[in-house]
Hints:
This protein is of the alpha+beta class.
Amino acid sequence: MHRNGWRYVLNGAVVLPEAKNDLAADVIRAHKRQIIRRAARTARAAEPRLSLARYLPLGYARVAVLSSDFRRRRLTGYGLGPELICTVQMQRIRRIKSPDIMGSTIEASGKWRIAWNRRWIESGGLVDSPPH
Length: 132
């Protein structure tokens, strides 16, 4: 996390190891706020107590949702593999422009945006249209 004016920007990753391919999309859609909050809570805890970014409101967040934990280095299969399920993005700072996953399926509603990875969908992930 870092400051951008009077808000902070969050970039992180969340691992959902137990999410089945047919249920993962529904779980992510239903819990997108909790995904962002958990990533923000972890990032704030890692910041020093005197850091101003720790106390500012959230302005922009992009969190990658993964099905496998890659905290250890992976030497083969670089790129956007089927382990990346999607990215969840929340944007309150309009001046930030960032590209989505190349070839992804986009779901946008208000300040929320979910970009589903094409490789994950091709490997058996189901992305139905969201209920309105």
